[in-house]
Amino acid sequence: MITRALLILVTFLTLTAAAAAGETLSVRAGEHGDYSRLVIPKAPADWKIATSDRKIEITFPSKDYAFELGDIIDKRKAHRVLNARILDTDETRALVLTLTCDCPVRTSKSAGDSIVIDIFNEAPVTLAEEETPREPVSDAARNTVSGTPESMREARDRMIALLAEARHQGVVQLKTDNKKEESHSTAIEASPASHSPEPEPETPQAPDPHAAPLPEHAAAQVTEDTHGDADQHGPSLADGPPQPLVMSEHLANENCADPSLFHEPEDGALDFSAIANLRRKFDESVTEQDRADIAATLALAYIHIGFFEEAGAIASPLANAGDHNMAMAAGLADLASGTRPRASRILAPYRKCGPFGELAFAAAASIDDDRVVSLQEKHIAALKPVTSELRAPLAEWLGLNAIERNELTIAKEFYDVAKTARGGDRSPALAIMENALFDRIAETGHADDGHDSTAKPEAQKAEASHGPTPVITDELRQIAQTPGPLQAKALSILAEDYEKRANVAYEGFLDDIAAQSGRRNSSLAEARASFTGAKALVSAGRLREGVAVLEAAAHAAPGAENAGRALAQSLIMNGLTSDAKTRLNAVSAFFYHREFVDVKDNGDLNVAVARELAAYGANDLVDEALSGIPGKWRADADAVRALSYLNSGDPHGALAIADEGAMSADLGIVAAKAHERLNDRAGTIALIKSSLRRGEADNEFATTAWRAGDWPLATAAFNAVPKKERETAAASRATLAALNAGAGDVPAAAREALANDPEALAALAHMFKTAPTVSVRAIDVLADFTSGVKKETDFMARGLEPAGRDGR
Question: What is the DSSP string of 605-651?
């Protein structure tokens, strides 16, 4: 009954959308740490999805749709997707995705009719409100041919060979002066969560990082001949027999890693052909010992050329065997490839291993982790020698974290390091930092390559009136539309701009914000970004979706729960004071997210929602809203319940609640109106007098006494109202009641209340001196003109003016 009534109240708020036939459907892709996400925005209705046999089959009702698959095929943004195929039947078209693993798949539909597909390493916790049933893929989809591991290996080796050829031709120069190779920058997407090309399927996946060694305890468990010894590492980058990796200097703590292993090569160049040879030898190794001898050098080589996922997969087994250098390599590779939570767990034990260990952990850790040290110039110095492919994402995450902590000076230094490491390349992190550090970057006079020309006039106009202002660039818009670790931050920036200018950044912008309610395992920074997005949704009239985003942020980042709940309550409270549609939207948000917004030790929100419902006489919903309310709010609850019964046409029910409820001024007013509704003048007057004796006072008592025709009681009830609460209209009625009761002057309380309207006060005072005897009916008429004689004259003059112009 309650749910049905609620749905009736909010039915007109529901909007639907569908994709037009014949359009191209983009398939967005991105990595979210422990899962890959695919999003098909504005998908047509009646799509079906099936998963089995390492395949995902999405079938659409007609063949009128094309697909844009650049994120999957060209950019390889979803690492658990091997390839994509289009499969047509007589009437339907299906998109068939081949996976690299037997991965659990979760599918759902988000706001804006987007299809959301999450591909996990492990079985996920189902968070979606609506999840599609899972069916096996069709025989045709099952038999589609995917790329073999051998073909992927060959493709990777060809890529490395091309890099080697480019270097020999002088196109690629890996120098320690931070000049990056042009061809390599086009092959690898740059971002702090940038992803190297698809890892080879036969490469071992990184084991559970919890199994990695903890340096604080490793000394008691590692013998002299373990992999932790300095002379047990794999070969160098030169082609030929593996050579041992030797620490550049003695480390006081044997459980730490050697940071020099991650520095630029001393000779200023890398031999890419040697890396290809090492990879082939690694694949062809017969014994585990042979593989281990090569693995350490190959992992470091992959880090130097930016193949971070491959580096992590190869380094992790050695890390689990007790090799601290490889544990550091695995953690750094995870960080650079966007798997920050796992990187944080792996790097945490090395946070006391000097400036490099401190900065590595600080880059991976969440901003509210109290184990992170304050970053200083020594950390900048420790970062600068690092190979540029690794230095860029490290500096970017350090800069982003510093911005979240409002440490803008050091953030600007990390930005400079990251931009230098990137060379001429762009990354999502650079765009985000440039927005946050706009003032500081503007002071240096360095032009921002990422700002598009279309935004510059807008920025110049804003700068002319308010000084330097961040510009919303096409680059930021693209980041906001691409699933990934920085999408929430980009959406937050666009949401702040939307709040200021009500300018929708791109089509589907608000839908993308609403889709953030499906996020999981968010950082505190991402949760704070969700706050801005939620407010933007509310500004657009989508209050319930805004609250959904806040609740999801609270669940994903427990540290933001209290702040998110307080903001959600505030948004609903403000909505209840707005127009009728927004008020009903606020009621809907309260019921749909009650477990989140309903605070058991505070009943203010419950009463406010119930009061809105009482205006409709919705007794059952009022009772539901007030259920479980603390005893401190009982009097308010009884008054609202009685009001609901009165508005539903049941004054007897309202009086029954008043007889048994906790008496208050509000409940007394409702009871007085109930007597009035029953034409019980004596009961009305008796209840007002009883309320006044209990010290309850309100302008409504004076008004009700006025309507009952008890002039002395009307004046007395107004005199009892606290000075700051006296209303002008009630003062006018009290004055006329006093006049009719035979008083000789305006009552003092009414005179004080009318002090700010001297014309009305003068008109009323004049009536006591010269007006003839006033009847009750005349008082009713005069009450409409208590604003004064002048206003009444103006009213008459305006009414007669047209007749004068016409000569009538």
Answer: HHHHHHHHHHTTT-HHHHHHHHTT--GGGHHHHHHHHHHHHHHTT-H
